[in-house]
């Protein structure tokens, strides 16, 4: 029997960037907000002098316990899915701050093309350019509408960068392909290290337009609009899979959550695992959530006027399916929306260069210390003669080569023995890698649903992922690999090992990226999407579902900047809804 608690105005399911932003915005507007987080508390004190590569980078201390909850995976709808028993292609996390604690800090805005991708593709190349089973669709919002929210996120987080386009005027040294922004980044870009200079020179020689990558690793100390003070990056090289001891990598625990707590209107409850959204189908609303205190196994029901589903992508979709909200997607007919348009990230294009007469200090670095070019991203180049749509950003990142995982050797080197050791020492500080982070576009047979065979620790069905590469992905990766090889040769490497693209089926075993998207996508049509452009659920008018689960496809970028913008947009929608519940409930608004 569940214990029913006193109702609140807003409850968030998950307390990462999306849950933290919504908590801050609504608490500052004088609403009572409860944040439910299934993991434990975290703060900068937890990371003091904890440069533990073995524990955090190799043994995944900040990640989800796969013995209690995992996913099942298969390549095709007719296959039997099996559970992911060890960490592989991606690393779902847990705990206060979510992935915003252990991320690298790369903070892009998606391109204007991304938000109107179907319309712009048809206008430029015709409907025949879109393969029959590719479910390309516009997002129901334009870049211009979303720009103020991008700006709000960047100034809240203290992003370091250099603008390429301010109000339509192209700026020096920035990304000339980015959408127009209302003002520059709040902080200057990070320092350009010698390897980044080599990349910039090589990219320029190859005819591309390089610039410093936008970063949530702060180039200077900073006070954000909420009066929160953040530190300056020390370039220690311990960002990805680690928390930052200096508060110099912007994350929810040092930005939006302290601001929410300062209001006195926000309550954080940790070890609170939400297992169901309480849904009244007749009224098309949620009345609250059911959760389990994982320390005591006590079950609670938390009533709320608004529920914000702000967990990780896969968990957002799973909770919608477990709670019977919306129509599950059917890959045979293409009908239904919940679970539709699951996308991953195409990391198939890369090149590593080995330099005989160069040496750099590669142990120093930061998660988002990098340089990039966008010439082959989005529709920034002519696709008329290509066998793929979209593209990706090409970049070099000096994240800090930690000693356990850092053994770069030429591809013809044995994987063990004396020659491997000699080559590891030879190229320890004399090799550089560049890669293309490519878009993945939605296909009818890539989706999420509930597994009929496997359950979690509470007996609830696991989320099942059905995903594989398509001709689009292979063609994009091959093209990107050629570009990376060309640039690396211009960088002066004595030996270049290029990836050549993607090989075989998608492999769930090696880590690639944690950028899962889709499954609860946004749009203008309730028959084609789960949420509207305020991230409000079509089937439950007081349920909002921000996060990367709302992405109708995945772009050639890291998702967090766009996730942050959508969270601020959702917070505005929630506030409007609380003031006048009918104003957003009508699909026509």
From TrEMBL:
Belongs to the GMC oxidoreductase family. The lineage of its organism: Archaea, Methanobacteriati, Methanobacteriota, Stenosarchaea group, Halobacteria. Keywords: FAD, Flavoprotein, Oxidoreductase. Residues 397-417 are annotated as: Disordered. Residues 442-567 form the Glucose-methanol-choline oxidoreductase C-terminal domain. This is Gluconate 2-dehydrogenase alpha chain. PANTHER family: LONG-CHAIN-ALCOHOL OXIDASE (PTHR46056). Pfam families: GMC_oxred_C, GMC_oxred_N. InterPro entries: FAD/NAD-bd_sf (IPR036188), GMC_OxRdtase_N (IPR000172), GMC_OxRtase_C (IPR007867). It comes from Natronorubrum sediminis. Residues 229-342 form the Glucose-methanol-choline oxidoreductase N-terminal domain. GO terms for molecular function: flavin adenine dinucleotide binding; oxidoreductase activity, acting on CH-OH group of donors. The keyword Flavoprotein applies.
